[in-house]
């Protein structure tokens, strides 16, 4: 039988969804070209190509070879990657169509955004719309530590280490590559070998430019940060994403890369409290050498769509990874966490605790956690647990804990639990004269405190806890009444609880 082969011809449509940069700049790079091979053309997406061109045109060619190489490599990846849809497994429960249907405008110029320090206890940097603007108390850091812009980095040794790390780190998806094209600069945090930084460094991300509601305008910023800790170094990093004034519409597409040398330690805190009309997409990629330690405490409450892609790879034995996250969906929001922990060496240790609270009938939470224990990761001790509270009718949570074990001498477990507040716990409060509202507040607060109390900033812990109580603990008299009616129909909260837990212990036979 004869076969007919053909190469599809893709014609680029006009550019109605993208705005030209306010200040066009001279270009020296070759214009972006569609992929030539038939295989790449089958995955070619005109929308993604237009977005890449818009980002490419919004920034000038960089004089920094490292940054320019990052942009060039990201361009090649973007042109062969289509925009994700619900048909793609990683985005099965996450709808990104509202980003695609908006008028995306890359932010090309640093804004004028003076900020006053709220807490001068820690050294901190202000990153506004992807541009590093302000820095406070950096003089208190050890002299050999570098914190600042890659474009202003003059130390050739540090520049060489940054270039080597970026060249061998190719993790990420389409949003990772979009950030690589549109990042105006790279904020570098470098800790030399054996250096211990006592106070954490606070990175505050502000979204200054934003579109009005129903305007369909979506300004796009691409902040990118690299934390590089050499052998035996220690540092704490606090990331706070703030929305500025009002409920504006914008898209923050952020990337954080962390490299931890042998025996190093990084404590990472990440707080996301942006506008409820914003899109927040974040990538965190961590590479740990032997005997190193990485701790993450995450609290996410803002954004119409908030997605965190977290990838941790253990590159040596005796490595410790601890992850604790709390997501709150109190409005028509989607809170999404996709995590991956890869253990390749003996005696690795990992613990992951994920909690989410959905208190709105149109609220949604997604958790897809993958722990992979490869063949040579013997004597691994891994644990994963996700717990979810649904406080309103039709609130939705999709969880997928995933444990893949190839090694034959491990101790691993994972579990999932989804429910409303326990009926017996509420009865305990009521029987002692405590109101139903106060009881719900206390239970919700205690549920989230297990994750939030690990955050190093007392002010942040207090603010986030108060927000969780006000927004989630008592989600309106109507929602509570509907919940009670449903409880009576199904015969109590206990029957509506879903709990799954599995423990795997293997021992190599001799």
Task: Record keyword descriptors for this entry.
single chain, 510 residues, alpha/beta, 11-stranded mixed β-sheet, 10 helices
Describe the structure.
The structure is a single chain. This protein has ten helices and 22 strands. By secondary structure, the protein is an alpha/beta fold. The strands form two sheets. Strands 1, 4, 5, 7, 8, 10, 12, 14, 16, 18 and 20 form an eleven-stranded mixed sheet that branches. An eleven-stranded mixed sheet has the order 3-2-6-9-11-13-15-17-19-21-22, with helices on one face. A hairpin with a 2-residue loop joins strand 2 and strand 3 (131-136). Helix content is 22%, strand content 35%. Residues 1-16, 22-28 and 486-496 have low confidence and may be disordered.
Task: Give a quick rundown of the structure.
Helix content is 22%, strand content 35%.
Number of E strands: 22
Measured on Cα atoms, how large is the radius of gyration?
Answer: 24 Å
Helix share of residues?
Answer: 10-25%
Strand content bin = 25-35%
Shape: globular
Mean pLDDT equals 83
Biggest β-sheet: count, sense, barrel? 11 strands, mixed
List unreliable stretches of 5+ residues: 1-16, 22-28, 486-496
**Structural class of the helices, strands and pairings?**
alpha/beta
Name the assembly state. single chain
| Distance linking N and C termini | 56 Å
> Helix count?
10
